[in-house]
Amino acid sequence: MTSGRLHVTSRSTSRFVLVAAVAFAGGAAYLARTRRPHPVQPAAAPPRIGRVRSGSVSAAGTGTEHEH
After folding, report:
1. Which residues are CB-contacts of 49 (< 8 A; sequence separation ≥ 6)?
2. What is the pTM of this model?
3. Backbone phi, then psi, for 35, in 5-degree steps?
4. How far apart are CA 46 and CA 61, in angstroms?
């Protein structure tokens, strides 16, 4: 082990800064992805007026009454 200060070159410093920047960008992208709001669930379909699939008639009437 050396008793002096570590020899730091500009190349090693720039590598450290680059690695730190990439790590920070990756962490920020991960947080942005995990905190993305979930899509809103679609609303239930409104009741249909008239005939339904079962063949029964809704309360609105059959639509076959004619006024003269």
Report:
1. 58, 60
2. 0.43
3. -100, 10
4. 17
